[in-house]
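User: Reviewer 2 asked us to show a designed sequence for the structure in our supplementary figure. I'm pasting the structure tokens here. Could you produce the per-position amino acids so we can include them in the response letter?
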């Protein structure tokens, strides 16, 4: 058997074949975090991607390259989905092969403005099932980790989602997404209006989908919804939330589809279903259609 085949069959061989992968992810997330933190206050060359609100800097590309080249060297047979490689034309398809799903800087707009809410996110899936997630909040040096069946942690403190079921006591998180056309804005603002009319406590937008999802995993908010986020915003955070006892589903109320660019996450089923009933769909192209 060739080395790559052995690697791919690791899960069937028993033990914890992905433990080493997760350790490497933690090291790389910390290393990337140091690069991002240093670059935060420096001058940046900023370009746009799918819209004027979808930004990329040299640091995004540099960090993604650092992470993926280190992983390729260590795990040559694994697959990679990265935000900036996808923007540059790589296919964004999740197969059964061990696959790393990477956002080098989540919160690029924050990063550009020196707003210190930025993270690096590394998710890992095998047989299309998410195995672990590592998210590093670069400025606050908070490391969020989740391993399927083994819990979720922030700097080694176990995470637990909120158990709130009453919408009138809910703090809801969302993000705006990249589209700014009138129809999208009408739906986005309409969704906020519906939730405010339903008398939720509050709605917050922090500029980083992954860190908002980490707040949810920590119990600091009760629910999250978004249209227009990507698999690299969601992969690592999904494991962390589920391992913290939360729910991550599609905005229709059905099972999550990682490539669908939409999500509801919540501490309780009641809160997730409240959002599913309240919000209108905003259409985005699937990640695997690009
Ligand atoms: C984006 C941010 C933003 C959210 C977008 C994400 P990026 O990620 O999380 O808050 O609204 O949907 O794609 O581009 O900063 O990596």
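Assistant: Here is a per-position design you can include in the supplement:
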């Amino acid at each position: 058997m060739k080395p790559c085949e052995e690697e791919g069959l690791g899960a069937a061989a028993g033990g914890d074949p992905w433990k080493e992968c997760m350790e490497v992810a933690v090291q790389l997330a910390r290393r990337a975090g140091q690069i991002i933190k240093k670059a935060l206050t420096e001058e940046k060359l900023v370009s746009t991607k799918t819209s004027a609100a979808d930004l990329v800097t040299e640091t995004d590309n540099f960090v993604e390259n650092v992470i993926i080249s280190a992983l390729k060297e260590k795990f040559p047979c694994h697959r990679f989905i990265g935000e900036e490689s996808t923007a540059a034309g790589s296919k964004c398809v999740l197969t059964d092969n061990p696959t790393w799903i990477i956002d080098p800087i989540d919160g690029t707009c924050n990063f550009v403005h020196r707003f210190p809410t930025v993270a690096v996110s590394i998710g890992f899936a095998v047989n299309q099932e998410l195995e672990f997630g590592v998210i590093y909040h670069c400025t606050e040096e908070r490391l969020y980790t989740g391993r399927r069946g083994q819990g979720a942690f922030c700097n080694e403190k176990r995470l637990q989602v909120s158990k709130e079921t009453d919408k009138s006591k809910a703090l809801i998180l969302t993000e705006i997404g990249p589209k700014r056309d009138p129809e999208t804005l009408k739906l986005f603002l309409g969704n906020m209006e519906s939730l405010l009319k339903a008398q939720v406590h509050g709605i917050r937008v922090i500029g980083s989908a992954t860190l908002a999802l980490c707040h949810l995993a920590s119990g600091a908010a009760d629910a999250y919804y978004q249209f227009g986020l990507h698999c690299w915003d969601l992969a690592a955070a999904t494991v962390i939330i589920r391992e913290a006892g939360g729910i991550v589903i599609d905005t229709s109320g059905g099972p999550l589809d990682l490539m669908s660019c939409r999500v509801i996450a919540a501490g309780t089923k009641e809160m997730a279903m409240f959002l599913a009933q309240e919000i209108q769909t905003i259409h985005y192209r699937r990640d695997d259609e690009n």
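For the response letter, you might also mention the following. The chain has nine helices and 14 strands. Residues 9-13 have pLDDT under 50 and may be disordered.
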